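Suppose you are handed a protein chain with no further information: no name, no annotation, nothing but its sequence. What can you learn? This example shows the usual starting point.
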Amino acid sequence: MNASAEGGAPPPVCFSVNSPPFNYTHSIASAYFSATFSGLGLSSNLFALVVLVKSYRRTQSRSRSSFLVFLLGLVLTDFMGLLVTGSIVVSFHVTHFNWRLLDPRCHFCNFMGVSMVFYGLCPLLLGAAMAVERFVGINRPFARSARVSKSRAWSMVVSVWVAAGCVGLLPLTGLGSYHMQMPGSWCFFLIGSRPLDMTFSLLFSLTGLTSLAVSFVLNTVSVVTLLRVCCGKEAGSRRRDHEVEMMVQLLGIMIIASICWCPLLIFTMRTVLSAEPVGPDYLLFFLRLASCNQICDPWVYILCQKSRLRRVATTPCPPAHKKKMKQQ
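A reasonable first move is to predict its three-dimensional structure. Written in structure tokens, the prediction is:
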């Protein structure tokens, strides 16, 4: 027992609801599962990063290069998210360190809570930003062509990082609070009945759901427009291969994000609005499902890039007489 407990002082905020040690033996809370999960995600994102960097260096299309900037920002975010949070979780399962002794003032718990929110919202916000970029690129190509640049795309990625970071820091200012969660390996914001906790929980879930809704609406409009162009009279006058490829990647990212994140976001909102107690099994399961987004995303880039290289490799060369005619 620490000095604060002996003197009758209340426990630190992060341990006021759930305080370790916990008697929790769920299979998805084991060291083997966490290490496998983190290792698979890190290796997938590292492979995707190599593929994207090579593609980024080779591309000469301005629209594709700006789109690749967003993909690079997304894969970097996913990689760092798994590296930061995964290393903490795996370390806990391997060493079984005592959070109360290691972090008596909740600094470490707050850091992990901020990281969970930041690396959770970034992919959703980046997906919405990519949907906006593709919507403008397909529906307003001439207006976009004058403003598109790699530096502008990077500034948008950084703006998303700053916005997600600001949301993650709100509980440190009093709007919500980060708490230890079962099985004691991670911290997350409290989905509680206090007004400030309810406000932050709703802010988090509404931000994520709004990002997914924006992505769905804009991507749907972009796909419809692209189909009209490709299947209409303009199909022969404008090459849209690279735009179709980018939309396929973006749709894959949106579908994966919706499947992985909607359960947690809806669960958070439903729990707050219904004032029901939070089931630790449900919360841990939905969080693991949301984390699958960081593992599945890189394979969208990898598979699309491999199919593109295969398509280029199998494309027959034009006949010699056509080459001569072009030279003349």
